[in-house]
């Protein structure tokens, strides 16, 4: 009888015992054993629990939380061959949305995980140079998108209370405070191309292009095509934002100065000053340098 592991972010659960009983019933109805049960902590947000689940022989690992929990669990499952099943409980749930998986009801997500087919997806490997001295930290991993600039500033500055009250609308509401944000000097390198010096409001690199509210930031992005899509946004203050908004809300696939679109397998970014970073919605402080590489088909998700 197969056994799954459920890795729960307890901050997303109001009634843990009820959630566990619901999970037990769904697993039993599909012929699975009672699941292994783990909870994340502030110090270990999912990676360690996933490693333990693999060690205990789990046939499926199901993170219950937002995209940050999913990416942490994925980093522990990488290389194990054990697939993930997504039990969405976050503000954005962007990976589930992009994969057209259930992201509202726990039971629906779990049923999809138990009955769906294995689907390989790409993973981003992100290495960070905090001080610009070419001392690269241990890699982080992401499944949706990495931001370097304004979007990371917005995500990091959105209060939890606002997210609880407005859900995903909290991000654009908080973003209104940043419409006069200045450009950041940055050197950008795609694959083996020559580095280019430019100025940007933010750079976003990812495998998934769909945001909450149906907004297609990167219409050509695919989570399983072995490539990274990148968008360099140059708003240039209050008067520059209309061009950016029209391009994105109009789902334009064309590249322009305001919204420059590129495709690569590796992207290196080097800022002229410490710049905020986010990976899959997790704010990771600031840095000077960032390398993002695609690991094609490195993870399997049941969908």
Tell me what you see in this structure:
It is a single chain. With about 300 residues, this protein is an alpha+beta fold. It has two domains: about 5-115, 3-Layer(aba) Sandwich (Rossmann fold); about 125-300, Tumour Suppressor Smad4 (Sandwich), CATH 2.60.200.40. It is about 25% helix and about 35% strand. It has nine helices and 14 strands. The chain has helices at about 15-30, 45-55, 65-75, 95-100, 105-115, 150-155, 160-165, 170-175, 240-250, and strands spanning about 5-10, 35-40, 60-65, 85-90, 120-130, 140, 145-150, 185-190, 195-200, 200-205, 230-235, 260-265, 265-280, 280-300. The model is unreliable at about 160-175 (pLDDT under 50). Pfam families: DAGK_cat, YegS_C. Keywords: ATP-binding, Kinase, Lipid biosynthesis, Lipid metabolism, Nucleotide-binding, Phospholipid biosynthesis, Phospholipid metabolism, Transferase.
Low-pLDDT parts are 162-176
Architecture of the largest domain, CATH level 2? Answer: Sandwich
User: Which fold name corresponds to the CATH topology of the largest domain?
Assistant: Tumour Suppressor Smad4
- Determine the N-to-C terminus distance: 21 Å
Rg over C-alpha atoms, rounded to the nearest angstrom: 19 Å
Number of strands: 14
Globally, the shape reads elongated
What percent of the residues sit in helical stretches (DSSP H or I)?
25-40%
The number of helices is 9
Sketch the topology as an H/E string, one letter per element.
EHEHEHEHHEEEHHHEEEEHEEE
CATH class of the largest domain: Mainly Beta
- Beta-strand percentage range: 25-35%
Query: What is the residue-averaged pLDDT?
Result: 90
- Class computed from helices, strands and strand pairing: alpha+beta
Overall tally of domains: 2
Tell me the major beta sheet. Answer: 10 strands, antiparallel
Cofactor: Mg(2+)
GO molecular function: ATP binding; kinase activity
Family: Belongs to the diacylglycerol/lipid kinase family.
Keywords: ATP-binding, Kinase, Lipid biosynthesis, Lipid metabolism, Nucleotide-binding, Phospholipid biosynthesis, Phospholipid metabolism, Transferase
């Amino acid at each position: 009888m197969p056994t799954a592991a459920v890795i729960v972010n307890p901050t997303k659960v109001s009634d843990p015992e009820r959630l566990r009983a619901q999970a037990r019933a769904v697993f039993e109805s599909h012929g699975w054993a009672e699941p292994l049960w783990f909870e994340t902590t502030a110090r270990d947000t999912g990676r360690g629990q996933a490693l333990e689940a693999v060690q205990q022989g789990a046939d499926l690992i199901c993170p219950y939380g937002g995209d940050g929990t999913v990416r942490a669990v994925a980093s522990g499952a990488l290389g194990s061959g054990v697939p993930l099943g997504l039990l969405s409980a976050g503000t954005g749930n962007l990976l589930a949305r992009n994969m057209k998986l259930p992201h509202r009801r726990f039971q629906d997500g779990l049923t999809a995980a138990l009955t769906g087919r294995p689907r390989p997806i790409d993973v981003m490997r992100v290495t960070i140079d905090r001080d610009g001295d070419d001392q690269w930290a241990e890699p982080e991993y992401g499944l949706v998108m990495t931001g370097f600039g304004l979007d990371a500033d917005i995500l990091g500055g959105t209060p939890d209370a606002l997210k609880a009250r407005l859900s995903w609308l909290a991000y654009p509401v908080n973003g209104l405070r940043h419409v006069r944000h200045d450009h950041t000097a940055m050197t950008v390198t795609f694959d083996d191309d020559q580095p280019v010096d430019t100025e940007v409001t933010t750079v976003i690199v990812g495998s998934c292009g769909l945001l909450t509210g149906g907004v297609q930031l990167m219409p050509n992005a695919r989570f399983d095509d072995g490539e990274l899509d990148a968008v360099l946004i140059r708003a240039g203050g209050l008067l520059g934002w209309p061009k950016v908004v029209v391009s994105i809300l109009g789902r334009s696939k064309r590249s322009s100065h305001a919204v420059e679109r590129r495709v690569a397998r590796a992207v290196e970014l080097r800022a002229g000053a410490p710049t905020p970073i986010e990976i899959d919605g997790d704010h990771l402080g600031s840095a000077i340098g960032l390398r993002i590489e695609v690991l094609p088909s490195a993870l399997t998700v049941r969908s």
